[in-house]
Amino acid sequence: MISYGKQHITKSDIESVTKVLKSNFLTQGPQVPLFEGSIKKIIKSNYCIATSSATSALHISCLALGLKKGDIFWTSPITFAASANCALYCEAIVDFVDIDPLTFNMSTKALEEKLILAKKKNKLPKIVMPVHLGGLSCDMKLIYKLSKKYGFKIIEDASHCIGAKYLKQPVGSCLFSDITVFSFHPVKIITTAEGGIAATNNKKIAHKMQILRSHGITKDKNFFQNNNHGSWYYEQVELGFHYRMSDIHAALGCSQVKKLNQFIKKRHRIAKIYDEKLKDLPISAQFQSPNTISSRHLYIIRIPDNISKYSKKEIFHKMISHGIGVNLHYIPVYQHPRYKKLNIKKKNFPNSETYYKEAMSLPIHPEIKRVDVIRVVNTLKKLF
Ligand SMILES: *Cc1c(COP(=O)(O)O)cnc(C)c1O
Predict the structure, then answer these.
(1) pTM for this predicted structure
(2) Which parts of the chain have pLDDT scores under 70?
(3) Which ligand 1 atom sits closest to the C-alpha of 57?
(4) Residue 245 in contact with ligand 1 by CB distance below 6 A
(5) 359 forms bridges with which residues in the sheet?
(6) Contacts of 140 (CB under 8 A, 6+ apart)
């Protein structure tokens, strides 16, 4: 089976991890700050807070921006559920903005229309979370402009997106957002096994997230509210969580980061083969806007109805039976049973609904060989 995504682990990764296992620190040693430093350098943000997962980073991002019970939160329906769950953890009201049919990202047109309506009803969102689907950045400059006009905060879910660029700047530089979150789950661009990072340029937000990821405890005497009892003293100033990354995970991250460029290059090579070899089929791929350089986390194609003798669903299952691990990113979040009770109407998301019927992700990751890519192409072509 050619899997749709997979980690690429080499000897240097294994050595990096075993070195930590032989050291004095398995957690809270030097590796986490090192990893944060190396990501900071790549994405050009002022602060990086490493966490146990992107999900936990998204949660403390919402908290750091003050998302509370009853506040309104919007994201894209075409994403992993974690992009919306983080707001439910804060007891916020979750709603969605339909996608653009070409980029598959949150539509800025739909966003603006929804904002105009929300303003009339006095129901503007506190936070909007654009998701950079498959590694393709949303149009952040436009979303940022809207945020100034309508007064909302922005968290970028860049889980797919480390190594990508927007307007020549790395995604994560937070030029057009308050916080950007990355995931280091094994199927993502680089991995720490489990892990994430929240990046920001705001000192206060960074400090808040640092405290929230570690129980709400501070050891910095500048932030003590009571008198300092002595050198053992620390204070719990908030109700935080245990969302830290371990040094073992961070060590894997430190050695993976060194291969980021190489991984992205490989992904672009694979995408280029798909672009070229599939261009004669009556399908479409995600539109790569000239403002962006995608990390090429996913290669998503759309297969409209009635263009092949098989339906998309049949093509999907036939690809699997031929040993090709296609996938579907994603089921619209509002369709999940847990979200059904929010009473969100499918008819408000026509582009997401059609996307879900047509989308299929082809295998793309650093370990795929050219012959495998050709096999994917030929299998797909035969089904047409
Ligand atoms: C993977 C992913 C997450 C969650 O990442 P974890 O590190 O597994 O918590 C969130 N959002 C999107 C879009 C993702 O793809």
Answers:
(1) 0.98
(2) none
(3) 9
(4) no
(5) 302
(6) 130, 154, 156, 166, 167, 175, 176, 177
